[in-house]
Amino acid sequence: MPSDHPVPALPDVTPAAWREANRRLLAKALGEWCFEDMLHAVETGDGGYRVDLSSGTTYAFDATPGAFGWLQVDPRSITHTATGMLGNEVAEPAWDALQFLLEAASTLGSDPSTIATYFTELSATLAVDAARMTHGGDTVARIRSLGHTELECHMTGHNLLVANKGRIGFSATDVRRYAPESAQPVRLQWLAVHRGLAEFRGTSELSERDVLARELDEETRARFTSVLDGAGADPDGYVWTPVHPWQWDNAVQILHAADVAQRRIIPLGDSTDAYLPGQSIRTMANVSVPERYDVKLPLKILNTLVWRGIPPHCTMGAPVVTQWLRGLLDADPFLSDECRTVFLGEVASVTVRHPYLSKLDDAPYQHLETLGCIWRESVSARKDPDEHVRTFASLLHVDSVGDSFVAELVRASGLDPQDWLRRLFDTLLVPLLHVLYRYGITFNPHGQNTLIGYDENHIPVRLYLKDFVDDVCVSFTDVPERGPEPDGHDHVLPRKHPSIIRQHVMDQVFVGHFRYLAPLCAAQLGFPEKSFWQLVRETVLDFHQRFPELTARFAEYDLLTPEIPRYGLNRDRIVVTRYTDRALRHALYPNGTHPNPLAAG
């Protein structure tokens, strides 16, 4: 697609940056794969550990034990030992993460096809990390002033996953054009899709015309209408939808070639507005008119465990789930008035089912989720004028000189670290606990789905939540407070056992973020890890004391249990699921347990 912004040249990556990126990813792989019980670390004394591989090599390293049984590996301490040509063991400093993957393959219990494909994901991740290191980047002091959308372009990906920027399907040029770290504005392509293929849905207050009037100025709507008139098509016979330019070029024109040829899909032209991608890549924020909706669009790329399409049941169900949650939660005075929690609604959608492949039983889902969109309320449309809104994940960001974003915000606030953290825990956890205990509902509150609103002094004040449909789960137990639920002919709310509902909070907040945030606060704020976890526990207990009428629910969704199930995302990719082309996204299954730092004692 012609662009107003030329693709930047391939960045020069220095050998030193490549080695450093590898060294850090090797340390992460050792820590995470031992954490998920894919590898076994043997303690050697004085903070030392070793991992013996069935390939005959040993990796030794220093590590600091952390919460949930995690080892925080020192990247500079890693050594590699192998038997030399003369039969003697030769130890040398280790830095090559790709070589480590190949040497660990048989120990991990995977197959050559999986290892080769995962190698691609790992190499792609390293390429981005090394380029970032080569060119430095803004300090945490500088990014503190950025808005939500611009800040997203400085983040470095999912914490739990080792290969967190795999993006299989993107070329190197695609990464430089469309990945968030490239920060290249994108103009979306718009299509008219015949109503025999497409269906619009919106919340009760939003019509199809309302959405188009909000998203497209009058001149652009007239331009698009003239395209349809010129094609001899009835404008009212088509649903208009944006499509990512990469998707249009690489998926839609190929899989929907019959529809394009027969004028069931008609390209209308580019958007006037420019957009920037968030960390999920497929969700685009409008930077020309920030108050307009964010747009979630399918991309036929494999990234962080799944193909990044949008299932038709999600586009169909998004507005009704939003309508239901708003009616339920906005009417709760504790959430709406005291906590001032913001639910960024998925207010409208377009669903396009493939006219042929949708009739094929067990067709792989990557081919069925290629076209459609979800419009979501933007942060800019909901925040206060002096409010700073940042993803929860941004607190874990560390700049090129080693300074953490969380320490920068604490310093800027003027508060003592303990006071600031208590404000953070109250802001983040109390609304999540209330929704969990009161309604038996959980979100998928990982670092990109949960956002923190800060006042002008960078003190946490309220929580923003997004990504509802398919990520909102309800307990299958009877919860009168939920009232009538929106399931009708289509099942749009996954129902799960209370222990699984609880696990969403445990895994995404405590295991997925606090596990990393605690040592950062210890190292850069002087706030001990033990005190960190005690403060989290006190936040939970204070909530229990305030709402004694929910005592039975505290036991049902027990966050203070001594052990929690272990769900390994890296293990799922490399050992369990691998790269099988499945008809459906799969559920994770537990593999052992973790000790819970929130338990008493």
Report on this structure.
The protein is of the alpha+beta class. The chain folds into 3 domains: 15-152, TATA-Binding Protein; 186-380, no CATH class; 385-560, Transferase(Phosphotransferase), domain 1. The chain contains 19 helices and 26 strands. β2 and β3 form a beta hairpin. α2 (97-108) runs antiparallel to α3 (112-134). The longest helix is centred in the C-terminal third of the chain and has 28 residues, at 498-525. The radius of gyration is 24 Å and the shape is globular. The model has no long low-confidence stretch (mean pLDDT 94).
Topology of this protein?
Blueprint: H1 15-35, E1 42-45, E2 48-52, E3 58-65, E4 71-73, E5 79-83, E6 89-93, H2 97-108, H3 112-134, H4 140-143, H5 148-152, H6 172-178, E7 189-194, E8 198-202, H7 208-215, H8 218-230, E9 238-243, H9 245-255, H10 257-261, E10 265-270, E11 275-277, E12 283-286, E13 294-296, E14 302-303, E15 306-307, H11 312-329, H12 333-339, E16 342-343, E17 346-352, E18 372-376, H13 379-382, E19 388-391, H14 405-413, H15 417-439, E20 441-442, E21 450-454, E22 460-465, E23 473-475, E24 495-496, H16 498-525, H17 529-546, H18 551-556, E25 563-565, H19 569-576, E26 593-595
Distance between the termini: 60 Å
The figure for the number of domains is 3
Rg computed from alpha carbons, rounded to a whole number of angstroms: 24 Å
Residues in helix, %: 25-40%
Proportion of residues in β-strands: 15-25%
Unreliable residue runs:
none
Largest sheet: 6 strands, antiparallel
